[in-house]
Amino acid sequence: MTSGRTMTAVAAAAATWATALAAIVSAVPASAQDQLVDPNTVRPSLDPGRTANGLAQTPPLGWNSWNKFGCNITEKTVRDVADAMVSNGMKDAGYRYVVIDDCWHGTRDDRGVIREDRTKFPSGLKALGDYIHARGLKFGIYSDAGRKTCGGRPGSQGHEYQDALTYAGWGVDYLKYDWCSTGVRNAEEAYALMADALRATGRPILLSICEWGNNRPWEWAAKIGNMWRTTGDIRDAWAGRVTYSIGIMDIVDRNEPLYPYAGPGHWNDPDMLEVGNGGLTDDEARAHFSLWAMMAAPLIAGNDLAKMTPATSAILLNREVIAVDQDRLGLQGRRVRDDGDQEVWSRQLADGSRAVLLLNRGAAPASIRVAWPEIGYLATARAEVRDLWAHRSLGRKQGGFAATVPSHGAVMVTIRH
After folding, report:
1. Which long-range contacts (CB under 8 A, 24 or more apart) does 44-51 make?
2. CA triplet 109, 102, 155: central angle to 5 degrees?
3. Do strands 241-242 and 245-246 pair parallel, antiparallel, or not at all (unpaired)?
């Protein structure tokens, strides 16, 4: 039985929290307060009975500023990217999120409210969000669970509810939440706290967990966030590590075994795309994009969308590959055979067909064959094969399918019987 003294203490704590949150709400611009919930309904602790937020039923598609621009991000760059997404067909292909990564921050005011850097964003982030929304796109932003972001700007630790309300007032739809300067914080607690803060605003905001897989988020994050990084930062290279950044093949090897944890609303995130940033050949870039689609990964472009080559555009706008990524069944594909430099991947799709990837990591072209039993079909079956990069049917095949795959390249097909 709970004592009266305990109940009194709980009531006092709840009243203190409600008063504190009401003060935070008062610091939000009046124009944004109609988007906020009653602060008395907010709880400051992790609810063990929490449910998912219902967002990201398929992997998010969009663009993020970091891989190309780093801290050299400006309002003009973001507006140009938003315009390009509309004019170059990316919006029509399903890309929606325009995400500003680190270094947008100014300082906190005397009430602790975070402000944007008005030198870089002279119109303010509320106006920039309105610009993005006016083009039928969604607005994303970045913060960190520590005292400082990875770029040394103010983090959200100790300001979670305050920052969430500010973001809601700016019209934010997506938060990438990083893991620098966190000290001894518990990752699950830190991300759950921000998830609760976002939910308390009353605005649907997708939460992208970016703690690099250090705390095995795939085991606990499905009801906290919508996607979680599984590795360190991606590097614009086929393979190999430089400091904390790793190449595409290294990321693939870490992300692939986690396939049981992915599904609608909660995705393994092998980091943003490097297509179009200059470090990959066209074959490598097609393989990179194909593998991300096979792994049901978020497809977050990281190049300058306003200055794409035709080859880059053809990769990012391949709707047949995007359709595999966006398949509503939400099963992450996986390796079904590993012969060293040559691999066979399979992903079951909602209509019963399979997406199949033949991957060649080697230095020379190689012939790779998939046998139907490897992907769950009878050996005697006759199945229709369609090449998703050539955009043509290869006819009906019995027993299996083979193709010559270029060095550091992939052949991606769908197979229906």
Report:
1. 44/17, 44/161, 44/193, 44/196, 46/188, 46/189, 46/192, 46/193, 46/196, 47/196, 50/192, 50/195, 50/223, 50/224, 51/223
2. 45
3. antiparallel
Residue pair 366/341 in contact by the 8 Å Cβ criterion: yes
Supply the CATH number for residue 72's domain. 3.20.20.70
Whether 206 contacts 55, CB under 8 Å: yes
**Phi, psi of 107, rounded to the nearest 5 degrees:** -115, 170
The one catalytic residue in 101, 102, 178, 236 is: 178
Q: d(Cα 351, Cα 293) in Å, to the nearest integer?
A: 17
| Residue in 297, 290, 310, 311 with CA at minimum distance from that of residue 360 | 290
Residue 34 has what pLDDT? 41
Q: 101, 233, 236, 304: which is the annotated catalytic residue?
A: 233
Q: By residue range, what is the domain housing residue 138?
A: 61-325
- pLDDT value of residue 47: 58
Which alpha helices (H) appear in 95-247, and where do they start and end?
125-134, 160-170, 187-200
Residue 51's pLDDT is 86
Largest CA distance in the chain: 77
Percentage helix, strand, coil, to 5, in the chain?
Answer: 30, 25, 45
In the DSSP assignment, the letter for residue 266 is B
Q: Mean pLDDT by 10-residue block, N- to C-terminus, for the chain (417 residues)? A: 39 41 47 39 50 96 98 98 98 98 98 98 98 98 98 98 98 98 98 98 98 98 98 98 96 98 98 98 98 99 97 98 98 98 98 98 98 97 98 98 98 97
At residue 50, the pLDDT reads 78
Q: Looking at this protein, which amino acid is placed at residue 212?
A: W
Q: Which residues contact 152 (CB under 8 A, 6 or more apart)?
A: none
We report the CATH number of the domain holding residue 340 as 2.60.40.1180
The phi and psi torsions of 35 (rounded to 5 degrees) equal -95, 0
Asked about 178 being catalytic, the answer comes back as: yes
Question: Under a CB-based contact definition with an 8 Å cutoff, are residues 385 and 415 in contact?
Answer: yes
Same-domain status, 317 and 387: no
Q: Reply yes or no on whether 34 is catalytic.
A: no
Closest by CA position to 334, among listed 318, 312, 354? 354
- Looking at the fold, whether 80 and 191 belong to one and the same domain comes out as yes
Q: Are 270 and 386 members of one domain?
A: no
Query: How far from 248 is each of 65, 159, 208, CA to CA, in Å?
Result: 19, 35, 20
Does 293 share its domain with 406? no
For 22, 221, 335, the CA distances from 225, given in Å and listed in that order, are 26, 6, 26
